[in-house]
Each structure stands twice: as C-alpha cells, then as structure tokens.
Amino acid sequence: MTDNVLKASIAEAAAYVRAHIGDRAPRIGIILGSGLGPLADQVEDPAYVPFADVPHMHRSTATGHVGRFVCGTLAGTPVIVMQGRLHGYEGNSAQDVALPVWVMNELGVETLITTNAAGAINENYRVGEFCIMSDHINFTGRNPVVGTEPDGIAPRFFSMLDAYDPELRALAHRVADERSIPVEEGVYLGLLGPSFETPAEIRAFRSWGADTVAMSVVEEVIAARHVGMRVLGISLLSNMACGVESANPSDEEVFEVAKEAEPRFCSLVEGIVAEL
Ligand code: HPA
Questions:
Q1: Where would I find the beta strands (DSSP E) of 14-67?
Q2: Minimum CA distance residue for ligand 1 atom 4
Q3: Nearest C-alpha neighbor of 131 from the set 236, 22, 259, 9
Q4: Exposed end of the chain (fewer CB within 10 Å): N or C?
Q5: Could you report the average pLDDT of every consecutive run of 10 residues in the chain (276 residues)?
Q6: CA 145/CA 98 separation, integer angstroms
Q7: Is the pTM of this model over 0.70?
Q8: Domain coordinates of the chain in residue numbers?
Q9: C-alpha 68 – ligand 1 centre gap (Å)
C-alpha cells in the first residue's frame, strides 16, 4: 500500500468511527486478547462500532473475538476498547493488523494497552498468572511499516528501545501488588501461527531469551511505536508452552484459563486505567 493510500485509509476509517462514537474522545486504547473480551462489558456509556462496518477494516474470524470497538469510559477514563483483534493467521497482512492501532491514534489515543493469552516458556512461570511484557522478539517475519514512504505517516526508521514503556510497566506492577494479583515480567515472542509451536522451537526460543509466546501483539506494538504511542503489553499465561512440563496447548485450554482469570484481569486493567 502506498503511503497516500494508507493515510487515506486511516483517515476514512477514523472518520467512520468518530461519526459513531458521538462526543466521546478516547485517550487510552485497549486491545483485548483471546478470552479477555468480557472487560469490554465494564465500559460505561458504551458506543459500539463493529470492525466489519469500518471502511478498510477486516472482520475478526478468531474464536471468541467479538470484533468491535467499544468506546466509553473505564474507571472514569475515556477509552476505546477493541473487543477482539485481527491476527495474521486469519489472512490479514501486517498493515491490516496495524490499521486499527493507527486509527485509534488518529482518534487521539496516546497510550495503548495490548493484551493476549500466551504460552509460558519460562519454567518458573505458572498458568493463571499475568506477564507484563518487558520487550519482544518479532518472529512473525513481517513488519507493518514495510512499504510505507520514508517520511510518510511517520519517519521510516524508529527506535524500539523501551518499546514497552518503563513507567507503565512500573504502574502495572504497583497495581498488581496492591490487588495481590500474581504478575511476572518477561520477554514476549510473537509468531504468525496458527499452528502451535513444536517442543524444539520452544527450546530454541528459550535459548534466545523468550519467556512467553503467542500469535499476536508484535505488529500492533511496532505500529504504535511508529507513531509515538506509549505501550503496555500484558499476557495472561493461559498454558505452559508446548513441551514444557509435557504441555500440549489447545484453544480450549486457553479459553478455560481465561474464564477463570477474568475477575483478576478486569481488576488489573481497570486499576491501571484509573491512574492514567
Ligand atoms: N503458543 C502460541 N500462541 C498461544 C499460546 C501458545 O502456547 N497460548 C496462547 N496463545
């Protein structure tokens, strides 16, 4: 996509969403991963905008991903929540995955909280805990900024140092401590999927320094950093990664664990948002 086309797509998509959210002016964007969608039900004075209705946006086909924006207030803070996300494994390009992030930025969102369910590579981690992302390894083989003009929507080259904002990470730890919610902090590795990893891949990823693994987030975070948004990434550890403690992850396990974690997840994210 050339930059002019991309810029026009972002502008048209943002104009559509703006026209359907009235005078709501979101400051925080929240992307809800697999099984974590129920947090969107806590949004007050909600306006709903299905992804499929937004020009240039694709519909969500992933299990349990409702696929809509929910705009309103959470813990008194104006937010726009993505109840579900777009994944590369659904056939979306890296820019398709990034588009809603750029649209939220165009709507005035400066801080992105992106969440997912992830497998734990680190053997000290436990299923049901949360992991604050300290950094990532993009192993999708793709990057949403490829093909944009050198000084198009933002300068082509940009730093990924502290891509996961240190202050937001510290805030997340503080809120988790105050609420006695178990959290880890570690390096997240993002893949295209949809096959789960092999035990040999998990051993290799561990040797690279990865603590968690899943099939989302990295392209969103690259897109967000490209336009200067602050980012916080939180994974629910829904399973041990393939081969760790003989684990053999499945979609069903991910949803079961997410259901059980729902109250802790809502408490953690609402506590963070309340202070932003
Ligand atoms: N691997 C990849 N994606 C995932 C996992 C996993 O173990 N758990 C949840 N999403």
A1: 28-32, 44-50
A2: 214
A3: 236
A4: N
A5: 81 97 96 92 96 94 87 97 96 96 98 97 97 98 91 90 98 98 98 97 98 98 98 97 93 91 96 97
A6: 9
A7: yes
A8: 5-274
A9: 23
Q: Determine contact, residues 180/268, Cβ cutoff 8 Å.
A: no
Q: Which of 89, 213, 235 to mutate to test the pocket of ligand 1 (most atoms within 8 A of CB)?
A: 213
Domain range 5-274, CATH class: alpha beta
Atom of ligand 1 nearest to the CA of 117: 9
CA 199 – CA 216 distance, rounded (Å): 20
Give a three-class secondary structure readout of 166-219. HHHHHHHHHHHHHCCCCEEEEEEEECCCCCCCCHHHHHHHHHHCCCEEECCCHH
Q: Which residues line ligand 1 (CB under 6 A)?
A: 117-119, 196-197, 213-215, 238-239, 241, 249, 254
The secondary structure element, H or E, covering residue 221 is helix 218-226
